[in-house]
Amino acid sequence: MESKKTLPGTPIAGAEWDNEVYSFRKHSVQLRYAWDAGSAVSGFLEGLKEGRILGRRCNRCMRVLVPPRAFCERCFRSTDEWVEVKDTGKINTYSVSYVNNDASRRDKPLIVAVIEIDEASPGMGFLHVLGEVEPSKVHVDMKVKAVWKPRDERVGAITDIKYFKPLEV
Amino acid sequence: MSLPDGLRNTAQAKNWVDSLPLSYKYSAGVSGQRFAEGLKQGKILGSKCSKCGETFLPPSLYCPNCFVYSSDYVEIPPYGKIYSFAEADGKAIALIRFHGVTGGLIHVVKRPSAGRLKIGLRVSAVFRPTEQRKGDLTDIEFFEIRPHS
Amino acid sequence: MRRVAVVGAGMTLFRHRMLETGKEMAFEASRMALDQAGLDIKDVDSVVLGSAPDAFDGVHMKGEYLLDGAGGTCKPYTRVYVGGGTGVFVPIAAWWQVASGVADIVLVVGEEKMSPLLPHPQYAFWSIFDPILERPLGVTLLWIFSLEMRRYMHVYNVKEEDIALVAVKNKRNALDHPAAQLAANITVDDVLKSEPICWPVKRLDVSPTSDGAAAVVLASEDVARRITDDPVWITGVGWNVDSTYWTNRDLCYPEYLEKAANMAYRMAHISDPKKEIDFAEVYDPFDYKELHHMEGLQLARRGEAPKLTREGVTQRDGDLPINPSGGLLGVGNPIAAAGMMKIAEVFWQLRGEAGKRQVKKPVRRGLAQAWGDLMQVGTVVIMER
């Protein structure tokens, strides 16, 4: 490899890209989808609309799965029953996002976290955002509670929970 | 699979609607760049394999058969034959092949004033005026039937 | 099972944007690999191609689109895909064919052209998340990395300074790599003071998005003995995928990687990897991932990788060189091509052909590893001289 002085490839510099010194074609597509939520997540979304967090229990391994699923991926069998769990939990891990999903900068940083939900099996939780707290005050294992949208604004979506906030003791 | 308890009513089943808007800017590539520059000059360029000597249109950096670099870009005379065609929205779209060339171009064929389009008819490329060319296939406005073909 | 050798490797430059189309890049890398092996496309029995999500190239049948650039026309041809783990999975899928006797010579190609997507390739990653439970929150790929990094730091009490040492080492190693996109001499302080993107992840903790391709040729023992005096043998392969419910796992340790590594170690008759692996190319899209993966590969005890890095053990002249190529952080990260770059690096290192990048100690056995999807895939290849 070292005998080859330069490797193949023709880099395009930023200005060459912006000024289109080469031939380019531009194309946009707007793909729209309607994803079926499936039986377990439909129930979960229905619960969120009512201000409740629901899980599913597998009666073989006895885990309470949150978010709920129709089957237990470990026992590989259908789950058995719905379980309502608390809307509190603790922070498993968190970070502070300064960017949007297209890599542009956010106006205000956003604190994101994986929250282990109380009464679900240990380690079970989901992704959400934090509010009413400064990034410097957040820590792993911090107790938090869901802040819900008002009932009439809830539509059956993960965003029916506005954010999680630190739980005052 | 049976629905879990609490969701026996399928009217409760939900779906979630969202979109995925995607925008792209594709580079023409090394051979595509040469092809584009040729069109701007009113030329149809193909590539010639350094090993088997076969000529390809559109041109390629490499010979798809021998998998070696193409030796050269060659100008292909703008006269071809209709290999196959289809008619849609009042337009005729044809695959046009050129003598001694592997591949061809998909393009619009202008209908003859008299007679019908036929496979095997001889056609020639009509380029737009130089100042209107952009370096893509639309620099050829259409193919027209050659007289006495 | 037949023995399988690597007999040639090739790659393009890795750059943010390249003029070459995906097919053209695949051809350039493949041609170079065939030339190093002294083979013609007619000699190739079968082709395996790896490429990550179609959403980057913007051609939603990428395998077929890239086919002729990978030399696969009218041959048994497969595209394989396990997210970021793809690059090290492609040679595994090719290994099956030679080991089983289905093919004698297989061309193995990794390609990625990330630049076409506007406004930034990062956007494509949004489409890998759960559309109902995660996308409405505005999730980005950076979130999951930063969440994993934070958890790793918390559980093993690892400092940002320790993690930054990986970026410093890899970007410096890359100064000697002719394909490198982001080679640089930087300091720990530069990393710590770089722009926060998704704290604890900062600009210099992250590998770039890239265009590029890399290829190797695999051959059966008969063919390898005939065409080269210097074959490198694939002696172990392993792969493993954990649950997609990534928020239900402990992110501090990659269990799936431990399982993938153990599969490869068993095959290669390795019982003490830390002593028996001479050097490794581990997946480093982010600097902490190198540490995380060294532990999953059991090249370090849990939480011990930062200490080895501090002590210089993982430098090119150390006892256990890690990413002598410069890794994804320095050479670049065209996803499937990046994993293949690691395979090529282990090949060149074992043959003593790595030039200025050659590790100091004599090496007989090396390992390449990749990782991907929702922090759930581990792919491992062990190679020996």
Topology readout:
The complex is a heterotrimer of chains A (169), B (149) and C (385).
Chain A lengths: L13 H5 L5 E13 L1 H12 L3 E5 L6 E2 L5 E2 L4 E2 L2 E5 L2 E12 L5 E13 L7 E6 L12 E6 L12 E6 L3
Antiparallel strand pairs in A: 2-3, 2-6, 4-5, 7-8, 7-10, 8-9, 10-11
Chain B lengths: L14 E13 L1 H12 L3 E6 L5 E3 L12 E7 L2 E10 L2 E8 L2 E3 L1 E6 L11 E6 L12 E6 L4
Parallel strand pairs in B: 3-7, 8-10
Antiparallel strand pairs in B: 2-3, 2-4, 5-6, 5-9, 6-8, 9-10
Chain C lengths: L3 E8 L10 H16 L8 E5 L3 H4 L4 H5 L10 E4 L5 H15 L4 E9 L3 E2 L22 H16 L3 H14 L14 H6 L2 E4 L1 E2 L8 E10 H7 L4 E10 L13 H13 L5 H4 L2 E3 L5 H10 L8 H6 L16 H5 L3 H16 L14 E8 L4 E8 L1
Parallel strand pairs in C: 2-3, 2-4, 10-11
Antiparallel strand pairs in C: 1-8, 1-9, 4-8, 6-7, 9-12, 11-12
Low-confidence stretches of chain B: none
What does the radius of gyration of chain B come to?
23 Å
Basic shape of chain A: extended
By DSSP (H or I, 4+ residues per run), the number of helices of chain A equals 2
Percentage of residues in helical conformation of chain A? 10-25%
Helical content of chain B, roughly?
under 10%
Strand segment tally of chain A: 11
Anisotropy-based shape of chain B:
globular
How much of the residues of chain A is beta strand, in percent? 35-45%
- What's the average pLDDT of chain B? 90
Structural class of chain A: mainly beta
Number of helical elements of chain B? 1
End-to-end distance of chain A: 64 Å
Assembly type of the chains comes to heterotrimer
Averaged pLDDT of chain A: 93
Key words describing this protein structure:
heterotrimer; B: 149 residues; mainly beta; 5-stranded mixed barrel; 4-stranded mixed sheet; 1 helix; 8% helix; globular; C: 385 residues; alpha/beta; Peroxisomal Thiolase, Chain A, domain 1; 9-stranded mixed sheet; two-stranded antiparallel sheet; 14 helices; 12 strands
Structure explained in plain terms:
Chain A is mainly β and 169 residues long. Helix content of chain A is 10%, strand content 43%. In chain A, the strands form three sheets. Chain A has a five-stranded antiparallel beta sheet, with no helix packed on it. A three-stranded antiparallel beta sheet of chain A has the order 3-2-6, covered by helices on one side. In chain A, strands 4-5 form a two-stranded antiparallel sheet. Chain A is extended. Chain A starts with 13 loop residues before the first helix and ends with a strand. The mean pLDDT of chain B is 90. By secondary structure, chain B is mostly beta strands. In chain B, a hairpin with a 2-residue loop joins β5 (79-88) and β6 (91-98). Chain C has helices at residues 22-37, 54-57, 62-66, 86-100, 141-156, 160-173, 188-193, 221-227, 255-267, 273-276, 287-296, 305-310, 327-331, 335-350; strands spanning 4-11, 46-50, 77-80, 105-113, 117-118, 196-199, 201-202, 211-220, 232-241, 279-281, 365-372, 377-384. In chain C, α4 packs across α14 and α6 (160-173) packs across α11. The model of chain C has no long low-confidence stretch (mean pLDDT 96). With 385 residues, chain C is an alpha/beta fold. In chain C, the strands form two sheets. Chain C has a nine-stranded mixed beta sheet. A two-stranded antiparallel sheet of chain C has the order 6-7. Chains in contact: A-B, A-C, B-C. At the A-C interface, β1, β7, β8 and β9 of A face β1, α1, α5 and β6 of C.
